[in-house]
Amino acid sequence: MGERPRLSLGGGMKGLDVRITLRVAVVAVTVLGLLGFAGERELAWRDARNQLADEKSAAAAASAEVEGLIDISGSSSEKDMARLLDGATADFRSELEGQADRLQKALADNKVKATGEVVSTGVVKFADDKATVIVAATGTVQNSSTKEAEPRSYRLKVDLLRSDGKWLVSGLEFVA
Fold first, then answer.
1. Looking at the domain that runs over 32-174, which CATH code has it been given?
2. Residues 6+ away with beta carbon under 8 Å from 23
3. How distant, in Å, are the alpha carbons of 18, 19, 33 from that of 22?
4. The pTM is what?
5. Domain range annotation of the chain
6. Where would you find the membrane-spanning parts of this chain (predicted)?
């Protein structure tokens, strides 16, 4: 049996230098590829973390607005209404302001005392500066026609827009 022919890129040390250079190049390309992949994963992780923080902020704003709506009474309705208006976009604020006097009068005339708290939230839509949050809340309502506070359960769909870094309610509706 004969000897296998060997591929040689030159004589002696020169061939060894080419093999070492080729190995270094392969290692360098591998390391650069891994660094690129790690950098891309870091950016994706940072984006996901930022989105999660934004979703939490949107849910907190929705919760605050819902609590402001269900934790209201005839004796403090002016202050309660101001708190609601503060968390609303300009369009939704106008809508609320249009109903504020009538609502405050009804609350005072009927001696309404409502309390409540948010029990859960879920972000159902999120894109850029828009979010939709479903809010579940419980509370009690007492008025001039009830002897004691009656339990209530609420589920609301809250649409929000981010304006100057702050989440504001642009729409709110009770859902089944």
1. 3.10.450.540
2. none
3. 6, 5, 16
4. 0.73
5. 32-174
6. 20-39
